Amino acid sequence: MKLVRMMGLAVLTASALVFSMTAASAHDPETAEGQAAARTFLADHVPAERHAVTGTAAGVPCVNGMADKYPCKNVDLLSVLPLSGLGGGNGNDIWGWTDPSSGKEYAIVGRTNGTAFVDLSVPTSPKFLGNLPSNGGSSSWRDMKVYENHAFIVADFITGHGMQVFDLTRLRTVTTPQTFTADALYREFGPAHNIAINEETGFAYAIGSNTCSGGPHIVNIQNPKAPAKAGCVSQDGYTHDTQCVVYRGPDTAYSGREICFNANEDTLTIVDVTDKARPVQISRKGYSGAQYSHQGWLTGDQRYFLLDDELDESRGTDKRTKTYVWDLAKLSAPVHTGVYSSPATAIDHNQYIKGQYSYQANYQAGLRILDVSGVASAKLSEVGYFDIYPAGNAANFNGAWSNYPYFSSGVVIVNGIEQGLVVVKPNLGGK
């Protein structure tokens, strides 16, 4: 039986906690080793300085477990741009864009009242370029992805929001913050909880909308400014998140097919969406300990899937943050092979895998980085973290909502519900 849908499961705090204007000064290591680490870090970045907007130190290495006021391990602080410098509201999802003509990196920062665009050319001093207001109201749940230099943005619980399309190349000429308008608006659904895009095929998957029984609403975005409905996946009802790929994994029966891996509240549901008008459900599998299967990501070889469950920490007896490992040797029979339990006790939310690492945004525990090279035996290990919410580590909905780890520079951006944009640089020893 389906679980009752939880709207992101949090009743977010009524007012954002404003980022401190009197944060402690940059961490001053006392050891020779710490001083050497600081000199090396600062030689590779601009010298540590007070961020003009936040009062928080920028360009601070993680030394002796701290970077400025933030607990950390192998992750250095570059900067923080608070919500007050991004157009207000509370933070939610985040994505990134790299301009193919210049190599410039940009953050696309979701907020309850709109979407902010930030130039990360100097990551220790991010530059707010402007805001695309929400279409028709405020929502705690806004999500965005990128295809062909365009951002595609949805929001939940706004009846007429639809999917905003924004041409990111417009940012190239911005010199002062702007209030933007969308280049196109797709109206075949109103609210949607989330959106995924298969950049290889040019199809978007709006999920948790008021169509398709809440399952993936498929949109052809190959012409970004003229999106067109392509199909529905409604067999298993509401989908909370998905990853859709051209399949190159070990199950040769599906080689070259477009496959979606859906977190469907109480199951992992795998669907062949190659024929957008006639999607085929391949499998639907529950797992021990399921409370709310929220989101997950494939390993690079597409053999394994890491799934996070948003309610198992608060409802279960084991309060540690858990990651569920799936073996997908046969897509028709996925096998739950084990669970990684973090030292932290926060709720997990969104994770993305790059190379051998999973970058997890786990609310009060902040950004957590897991080495997944032992995934075949369900052995994951934490190799780094950056805690953007030092005040606690409980199963509550504060802190890190999501992250984006795919910039070629190695910079990782995190969006905090109360904190805004946090820019960091993992230092994982060249692994």
TrEMBL record:
- Give the signal peptide, or none: 1-26
Q: Which UniProt keywords apply?
A: Signal
Query: Which InterPro entries does this entry report, sorted A to Z?
Result: Choice_anch_B, LVIVD
Q: What is this protein called?
A: Choice-of-anchor B domain-containing protein
